[in-house]
Amino acid sequence: MISRRLNCRVGVATSSASSPSSGPPNATRDSNRVRVSVEQHHARRARASRPGVGGRPRAGHVGARDSRSRAVSLREAEPLKRTWPVGVYWGRFNPPHKGHLAMIRKLRRGCRLTVAIGSSEHKNERSNPFSGAERKAMLRGYLKESGIRGVAVVALNDGKSKAWALDNLIRKCKPDLLFLSNDKTDLVTIAKHKVRVVRFPRTGRVSSTLIRGLIARGDARWKSLTGRSVARALERVGGIRRIQRAYSRTRSVRRSPRQGNRTARSGRQTGAGTR
């Protein structure tokens, strides 16, 4: 079995023109935890597949000692890849950006990676302007643009609760490892009792929220934070207009109570009332 190391010592890359990452002080420790967790998973699988330890090796499997002692061709490596753990990177990707792509590059080195897009049933909202199918198409195009192959992309509903969403993810993706950022503490609390959770630090300043905010303000700099294929797909589905409409609708809802109070006060001051 080929052992690959997952190294997340470097923070999520944003872009060459972006500001330096401002990760948490314990980012290195959390990154090491990601690498060690995947290595431990590989070690357990290697022990289980050796004769006399955990049963007979799987068909086409080369023991850990053999894989270290000789070179393995690409044709031989493909069957071995099937014994790698299944890792799931869960997020909303609304829209996908360079930080997502950098994390996908790191996570796929030690597992068969699946990217799970949550909240797929939502669209035309401030936080979820695009449907799951639209985001899935954006991310697939972005991976193809970047030359990344072998990464599965699925869109999943959130359902009625986070617990339901997690059970749905486990049922559909069957993960050995679930990759979650450190800021998703509520999901980590639920998931750690059902699947092996690998946490990673969220570093860098680029985010989907930042991109949506720039689009809402009409700032064209958002295009430098994502891929060309994502920008084209976003414009093709009318994403700029949809985001601006969702943001303006939210602002009007937030402003309306204050406007109502001002109207009431002005009515009392002028002596106006119901007649």
Set down the secondary structure blueprint.
Elements: H1 27-49, H2 64-69, H3 74-81, E1 86-91, H4 98-107, E2 112-117, H5 132-145, E3 152-155, H6 162-173, E4 177-181, H7 185-191, E5 196-200, H8 208-216, H9 228-236, H10 239-270
Parallel strand pairs: 1-2, 1-4, 2-3, 4-5
Helix pairs in contact: 5-9, 8-10
Compact summary:
The protein has 275 residues and is α/β, with parallel strands linked by helices.
Write a structural description.
The structure is a single chain. Helix 7 links the parallel strand 4 and strand 5. Helices cover 47% and strands 9% of the residues. The protein folds into 2 domains: 25-83, no CATH class; 85-257, HUPs (Rossmann fold). With 275 residues, the chain is of the alpha/beta class. The chain has 10 helices and 5 strands, in the order αααβαβαβαβαβααα. It is globular and about 55 Å long.
| Total count of domains | 2
Tell me the distance between the termini: 85 Å
DSSP strand count: 5
Topology as a string of helices (H) and strands (E): HHHEHEHEHEHEHHH
Question: Structural class per helix/strand content?
Answer: alpha/beta
Give the percentage of residues in beta strands. Answer: 5-15%
Number of helices: 10
Strand order of the largest sheet: 3-2-1-4-5
Shape: globular
Low-confidence stretches: 1-24, 51-74, 263-275
Highest CATH level, the class of the largest domain? Alpha Beta
Largest sheet: 5 strands, parallel
Mean pLDDT: 77
Helicity level:
40-55%
Radius of gyration from the alpha-carbon trace, in angstroms: 23 Å
Judging by the overall fold, what is the CATH architecture of the largest domain?
3-Layer(aba) Sandwich
CATH superfamily of the largest domain: HUPs
Q: What is the CATH topology classification name of the largest domain?
A: Rossmann fold
